[in-house]
Protein: Type-4 uracil-DNA glycosylase
Organism: Afifella marina DSM 2698
Amino acid sequence: KALQKMRDDRPKSLAELNAVIAASEPLVLGAMLGATRAVLGEGPTDAEIVFVGEQPGDQEDREGRPFVGPAGQLLDRALAEAGLDRRSLYLTNAVKHFKFEMRGKRRIHQKPSLSEVKHYRWWLMAELEFLSPRLVVALGGTAALALSGRQVSVTKMRGRQEFPPFAGFLTVHPSYLLRLPDAEAKAGAYRAFVDDLRQVRELAG
Ligand code: URA
């Protein structure tokens, strides 16, 4: 009976799943500070490629949309350079709530813990099952952890990956590029990121 109830309660569409996520209590620490809401995935539900980030940032939390802050703007530029149209992609995050720490008046991003990533993993996998994309792109280690259930080194594993049951690709997170202090290193890392996105386009094409 309990099993039957679990089956009956399971979201039957992406819209139902998103309603559950939106109504959920945030698990991440930032939630204790009260300003956080769930940022849901965005894009066409028949997208061939789904990009998975880490978690919404300050601006995403305010606007309620994924990848609209500085990392999102960098991603937009790189996507366009690689010949990918953001509007044809589905963008979502491993963790759906912004985790932060107050520093003065600023909300500073905090990396989600292993248990937080695991907590949100069920939602991510359910979301992907509804979307059933041809390729899932992990942006950074947290996304790869959420997709594979284990720690993944981006440096060692960058490139084609399986994220069962999906074909996948692992690359860096755009905020890693923003953080590189040296202009030359940054430019090189950005070119490598655009090259990865070109491969993504070819793999999904
Ligand atoms: N970084 C992410 O990982 N996701 C967002 O939505 C924005 C920034």
Observations:
- The mean pLDDT is 92.
- The first helix runs from residue 2 to 9.
